[in-house]
C-alpha cells in the first residue's frame, strides 16, 4: 500500500483519493519509494484491460478487452484506475494511448447492470469508482490519447473526452456522444463540464438535451474528436500524435494542462459526496429503475 | 390566482416570480389544482399574441401579431409571460413554437416608447417585465423553438436566443442581432450571458461592441441560428424539429436543460433588483433620453 | 504627476495602478486637469515606440521600432504603458492601431534577458510591468486594433490578443501563438484567460499545451486572428476596421467592452501580488534559469 499512499500524496492537489478500497490485483510490482530504484515494469495484464509499456518511447497502450462491448463495470473501472495509477507512478511512462481490443466498440459506457436492482451501497461504491476514473484520467499528468476504434456512447465518450487528444476511425457505423437523456437519465455535471470544455456551451446544450449520438464525421466537425483516420492508420497516427505531445517538456505541459482543467476537476472534488448522494437517490427511484429494466430488456431482445 | 401561486411555487427553483402584478386578462380558464381534472384548454387569444395548442402533438404555437413590428411593449410582454405560464402549467402542452404573424418581422425588440419620457416607476415596472419574460422563456421546461420569419433585432433576438432551437427564413433582407450599442445603450449582462452561451465569448464580444445586425446567412455561420430554410418550409421544419426534441423523455431533457442554463438564470435572480435599479438610472439619464428621442424621430421620418 | 493621478483615479475601477514607478520620459505634455484646455498633442516619440495621432480621425498609431525583434524589455513595456496612458488620457484620441516598424516581426514577446540572471527584485519589477501592460491594453477604453505585420510569439501574441480586433498579414512565414510551453515555462493564468476568451477552451487547451506557433492561415481558421490581408493592404484595412468601430457611440461601446472583459481583468487585479510572487519563485528556480540560458545560447548561435 505504500506506493498507493505515496501516489495519493503526490496527486493530492487534484483531490484524487488513494485506491485503498480494494487491494491491487496484479500482485508483486515493487512499490516506488523515494530514492529506491524502480523494479523493471514492462507490461502487466489484468482481466479486462491489456497494458503494454514501450520503454523506449515511454508510451503505454491500454487496450480494453472486455467483450462483448467493453462496458464499464465496477471491475473494469477499478482495473482502469489501478492501471492508470501504476503508469502515473512509473517514471518510465510519459504517455498512454487508450484503445479497444474489441471490434467495432471503444466502450459502450457505464454497465447498466451495476445501476439496476442493486443496493444503495452498491450504487454509491459504483459511482465513487466512476468519479475516480474521471478524476484520474482528466487530471492525468501523462499525455493521454484516445484512439477511438469503435462506437463510444455515454461513459465511453467520457473516457475519450477526458484524454488530451481524440483520434477516431472514419467508419460511418461508429458513433459517439453523451446519450444519457435518451435513456431517461441525466449526465452528471462533470460529464457536462468536460463536454463543454471540449465542444463549447451551445453544442453541448443541444447534444446533451437530445442525447445525440454523432457519426465520426459529425463529431469531427464540431470538435468532439480532433482527427479522423482510416482504421489501418489509427495506431500509427496515435503514435505520431503522442510523439508530438511528448516533444514538450513534461513539467511545463503538465502545469499548463492542470491550469486548463483544474477548475472543473476541483468542482467535482468539492461536491463529490453530494454527487454520489444525488446519483444514488436518482438511480434508486422506481421510475428510473423501471426505465433501465426496460432498456435492458430491449438490449437482450436485440441480441437474440 | 391559485393557479399562479401554484405555478410560482412549482418553478420557484428558477426564481421566476408569480405574475401577480396584474390580474390575468383572458378570464375564465380553470385553475389547475392538484388532483382536480383540468378544464379543456385548446386555444386562447389575446390582443397581441395568438396561441394555438395542438392537443394531439402537445405542441403550442405562439404567433406574435402586434403590427407594425411586434415591438415588446409592456402589454405585449405581459401577455407573453401569461401565455407562457398558462402553457407551462398545462400538462397537455410539452413544447411551444414562437413565430410571427406580421410579415417580414419577428420582433423589433423592446418598445422604445416604454423607455422614453416615462416615470422612474414605469421604467422599473417595464424592466421587471422584460426580466420576467427572459426568466420564463430561457428557463422554460417546455421545448421552445423559434421560427424566425422576419427581422429580429435587440429584444427580438433575445427571444430567439432564449429558445432551445432557432430556425430562420433564408431571406437576404432579414437581419438578427443584439444591436443595442448602435442606439447608445448597453445590452444587460443577462442578454450578454445568453448570447455568449449561444455563440461563444469572442463572437459575442465583437458583435455586441459593434451592435451588429447579421444577415440570416451570417447568423447561421457562427451559430446564432441553428438552421436556415425557405419561408414556405418554416412551419414544417419547426414541427419536425419539435418532434425530434419531444422524442426525448421530458424529465431527463428538462433536468439537462436546467443544468446547462441554471448558472446564468441564477445570476439574474440574484441581482434582479440591482439590475432594475441600474436600468432605471441609466435610461433616465438626460443624455440617454436624448439619444432615444433622436432615434424615435429618425424612425418616424423613415416611416413617413 | 497630476495627470497620472487623475488617470489612476479615472480608471481605478479596472484596478490599473498609476504609473508612478518611474517618471514619464517624454517631458512636457501638459497634464489634463478637469476644466482646463488641453495642450495640443499631435505626436510624441520615444526610444522604442513611435506614436502618431491623426487628430482628424482621432486614431493613433503605435509603431514598435525596437530592432531586431521588438522584444518586450522592461523599457519597452514601460514606454508602451506610458504611451497608452497618454492616449487614453487624451480626449482627441478614440482608437489606436498597434503595428510594427521592424520588418517580419510584430513582437518576439517578453525579453528573456529580463528573466535570466537578474535579482528577485528585478523579476518582480519586470512582471508587474507585464501585468500593467496587459491591464491597460485589455481594459483600454479606446478601440484597439492589432495590425500584425510579422511573427508574434508569446508576449507578442498576448498584445494582439488584448486588442479588440486582429488583422494579420497573409505571409506563410509569419507565425503567432502562445508558445511558452516550448520554452519549458507556463503562460500565466491571465494569458490563458485572454486566449480562452478569444479562441475557446478546447483550442486554447491544445495550443497552450503544445506551445503551438500557428501560421497566419491556421490562426485565422480558429479565430486567433480576425482577418488576413496582403501586406500592402494592412494599413488601409486597419483604418477601415477602426472607422467601423469608431462609428459606434463611445460610451455604449466602452461599457459593453468592460462587461465582456471585466471578469478576467478583475481576476488578475485580485491576485496580482500572488501572481508576481509565483512568477518570481518560478523563474528564479535553477532548472528554469538553466532552460532559459540554453535557449538564449541557441538564439545566439542561430544569429551568428
Question: What features would you describe in this structure?
Answer:
Three copies of one chain form a homotrimer. The first copy, chain A, is of the alpha/beta class. Helix content of chain A is 47%, strand content 16%. Chain A has helices at residues 2-10, 74-88, 120-138, 154-161, 189-199, 201-210, 216-221, 234-246, 250-270, 272-283, 286-303; strands at 43-45, 49-54, 59-64, 71-72, 95-100, 104-105, 109-110, 143-148, 150-153, 165-169, 175-177, 214-215, 227-229. In chain A, the strands form three sheets. Chain A has a seven-stranded mixed β-sheet with strand order 1-2-3-5-8-10-13, sandwiched between helices. In chain A, a hairpin with a 3-residue loop joins strand 1 and strand 2. Residues 1-42 of chain A have low confidence and may be disordered. The interface between B and C is medium-sized, with 22 and 22 residues.
| Estimated structural class of chain A | alpha/beta
User: Strand portion of chain A, in percent?
Assistant: 15-25%
Chain pair forming the biggest interface:
B-C, 22 and 22 residues
Number of helices of chain A: 11
The radius of gyration computed from the alpha-carbon positions of chain A, rounded to a whole number of angstroms, is: 19 Å
Side-by-side strand order of the widest sheet of chain A: 1-2-3-5-8-10-13
SSE pattern of chain A, N- to C-terminal: HEEEEHEEEHEEHEEHHEHEHHHH
Oligomerization category of the chains in this entry: homotrimer
Amino acid at each position: 500500500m505504500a506506493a498507493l499512499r505515496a501516489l495519493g500524496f503526490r496527486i493530492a492537489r487534484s483531490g484524487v483519493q488513494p485506491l485503498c478500497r480494494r487491494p491491487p490485483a496484479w500482485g508483486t510490482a515493487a512499490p516506488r519509494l523515494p530514492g529506491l530504484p524502480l523494479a523493471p515494469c514492462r507490461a502487466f495484464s489484468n482481466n479486462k484491460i491489456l497494458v503494454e509499456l514501450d520503454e523506449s518511447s515511454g508510451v503505454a497502450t491500454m487496450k480494453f478487452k472486455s467483450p462483448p462491448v467493453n462496458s464499464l463495470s465496477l471491475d473494469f473501472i477499478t482495473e482502469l484506475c489501478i492501471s492508470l495509477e501504476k503508469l502515473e507512478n512509473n517514471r518510465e511512462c510519459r504517455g498512454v494511448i487508450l484503445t479497444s481490443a474489441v471490434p467495432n466498440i471503444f466502450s459502450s459506457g457505464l454497465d447498466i447492470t451495476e445501476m439496476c436492482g442493486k443496493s444503495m451501497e452498491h450504487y454509491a461504491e459504483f459511482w465513487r469508482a466512476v468519479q475516480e476514473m474521471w478524476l484520474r484520467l482528466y487530471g492525468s499528468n501523462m499525455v493521454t490519447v484516445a484512439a477511438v476504434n469503435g462506437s463510444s456512447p455515454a461513459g465511453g465518450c467520457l473516457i475519450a473526452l477526458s484524454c488530451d487528444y481524440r483520434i477516431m476511425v472514419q467508419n460511418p457505423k461508429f458513433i459517439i456522444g453523451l446519450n444519457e437523456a435518451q435513456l431517461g437519465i441525466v449526465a452528471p455535471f462533470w460529464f457536462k463540464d468536460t463536454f463543454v470544455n471540449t465542444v463549447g456551451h451551445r453544442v453541448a446544450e443541444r447534444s446533451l438535451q437530445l442525447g445525440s449520438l454523432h457519426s465520426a464525421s459529425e463529431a469531427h466537425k464540431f470538435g468532439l474528436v480532433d482527427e479522423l483516420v482510416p482504421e489501418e492508420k489509427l495506431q500509427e497516427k496515435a503514435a505520431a500524435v503522442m510523439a508530438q505531445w511528448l516533444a514538450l517538456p513534461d513539467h511545463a505541459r503538465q502545469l499548463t494542462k492542470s491550469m486548463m482543467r483544474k477548475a472543473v476537476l476541483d468542482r467535482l472534488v468539492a461536491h463529490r459526496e453530494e454527487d454520489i448522494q444525488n446519483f444514488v437517490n436518482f438511480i434508486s427511484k422506481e421510475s428510473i429503475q423501471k426505465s433501465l429494466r426496460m432498456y435492458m430488456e430491449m438490449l437482450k431482445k436485440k441480441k437474440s
